[in-house]
Specification:
The complex is a heterodimer of chains A (about 190) and B (about 210).
Chain A: H1 2-9, H2 11-35, H3 40-47, E1 53-55, E2 73-81, E3 87-93, E4 99-103, E5 109-114, E6 121-129, H4 138-143, E7 149-153, E8 157-165, H5 172-180, E9 183-186
Parallel strand pairs in A: 6-7
Antiparallel strand pairs in A: 1-2, 2-8, 3-6, 3-9, 4-5, 4-8
Chain B: H1 5-52, E1 58-61, E2 64-67, H2 77-86, E3 96-101, E4 114-120, E5 125-134, E6 148-150, E7 162-167, E8 175-177, E9 184-193, E10 206-212
Parallel strand pairs in B: 7-8
Antiparallel strand pairs in B: 1-2, 3-9, 4-7, 4-10, 5-6, 5-9
Classes of the chains: A alpha+beta (about 190), B alpha+beta (about 210).
Chain lengths: ~190, ~210
């Protein structure tokens, strides 16, 4: 009680501190992504090759690439960089539950596609640099394949992730073969 | 008796020094109070909102919680901070509902020294996965090499409902081993839940503590 009285007697300081606490709160929240440099994208970007899909090993105790990684799924991940031009992604989403997601450097996804329930998808995706960074011959590039979907990346780097659920251990080879068909390469003119 | 000029000057200096000390003490007390309140409240509330979530950033159902903008294109600052802190790569909530919990239905912390029964109505989703982790999101080593159940691997009742037992020792039915992990966390991922991601809370399992050692 005396502590509260003490605080009340210094109310201008307490009021100023509450305003400062609000500013500290906002700064802390905004600083968090920079303080935790071990976020998923940063960690994977340090280890994965550029513009190529890598099939991650199945998550096991003491052998997880990411925290909260689904143990009953396999992942193929492509680290991309759009500084030298657009990226062409080919992926087979073989069964219901398969997903393809394109992430920016902060873990925000700008493209997500789940496989539909009744059929498999052979996806051709053209990932374009955002803004005015890319001024290449897009018309020619587009004419290479009429069935290609396009998406603009808000950032020049990020990850393309294919998640494939495991139906059981006997299906691992089949799933790995389907994931191995995925490709991710810089568009050549 | 008249005081000499030197004595008066000395006394005046003492009074002045005392006043300065008191002023300094008051200022430093105020400075400490200001720093403590602003830093503890500011940093503490930020971490609390990032760890626990609020109505602004999460949807809740019983003990389950979902970050409503996780993995989306326009992340709010709290969700972005949360993703950076946990270090995971969540599926976008546009295609999947990812529910997490660290508590049972009575609000008690999930712990490996206890046994829990999860009972669920049929989950209507293209695919779902229910996995158990330790407090840091790491898989728990166990001799059965079992860490989760999916819509394809879980044994269900004829109507699609199911139960899962979290326990140290083997249990009949759907058993997830949790031995020696300490605090537990559960993650339920539903890809394309029906009718929608936000309404997926209707299908969440209940988590009841059976007993503790």
């Amino acid at each position: 009680m005396s502590f509260v009285k003490h605080l009340l007697s210094r109310w201008p300081v307490v009021a100023a501190a509450l305003v400062a606490a609000g500013i500290v709160h906002i700064c802390t929240v905004f600083a968090m992504p920079y303080l935790y440099r071990s976020d998923a994208v940063a960690r994977l970007q340090r280890t994965l090759p550029l513009n190529a899909f890598v099939i991650l090993p199945q998550a096991r105790p003491r052998a997880q690439v990411l925290p909260y990684q689904t143990p009953d799924a396999r992942y193929a991940i492509c680290r991309y960089d759009l500084r030298e031009g657009p990226l062409v992604v080919h992926a087979l989403l073989a069964e219901p539950g398969w997903t393809l997601t394109a992430y920016g450097p902060g873990g925000e996804s700008f493209y997500s596609l789940p496989a539909p329930e009744q059929r498999r998808i052979n996806l051709n995706l053209l990932v374009l640099p955002g803004g005015e960074r890319f001024l290449g011959p897009m018309h020619d590039a587009r004419s290479l394949d009429q069935d290609v979907s396009q998406v603009t990346s808000p950032n020049r780097s990020g990850l393309i992730v294919i998640q494939a659920p495991l139906k059981g251990r006997t299906y691992i080879t089949e799933i790995e073969q389907a994931l191995a068909q995925a490709s991710c390469r810089k568009l050549s003119y | 008796m008249a005081l000499s000029g030197t004595t008066v000057s000395f006394g005046y200096r003492l009074v002045r020094l005392r006043r300065m000390l008191l002023t300094g003490l008051s200022i430093s007390t105020n400075a400490v109070l200001f720093a403590v309140i602003s830093l503890v409240l500011g940093i503490g509330s930020a971490f609390w909102m990032i760890d626990r979530g609020t109505a602004l950033t999460t949807q809740r159902n019983g003990p389950w919680m979902m970050w409503t903008r996780a993995g989306q294109k326009d992340l709010d600052p709290y969700t972005r901070a949360r993703q950076a802190k946990t270090g995971n790569l969540p599926l976008s909530t546009q295609i999947a509902a990812t529910w997490e919990t660290r508590f049972d239905i009575e609000g008690r912390r999930l712990h490996s020294s206890c046994e829990y029964l999860l009972e669920s109505e049929p989950i209507d989703a293209t695919w779902f996965n229910l996995a158990v982790y330790d407090d840091n999101g790491l898989l728990i080593p166990n001799s059965a090499d079992r860490h989760s159940f999916t819509s394809q691997t879980i044994a269900t009742n004829p109507d699609g409902s199911f139960f899962i037992v979290l326990a140290r020792e083997a249990r009949p039915g759907n058993w997830l081993p949790v031995g020696g992990a300490g605090r537990l966390s559960l993650l339920l991922t539903m890809i394309e839940p029906k009718p929608s991601v936000t309404e997926s809370a209707q299908q969440l399992p209940s988590i009841r503590r059976i007993g503790c050692r």
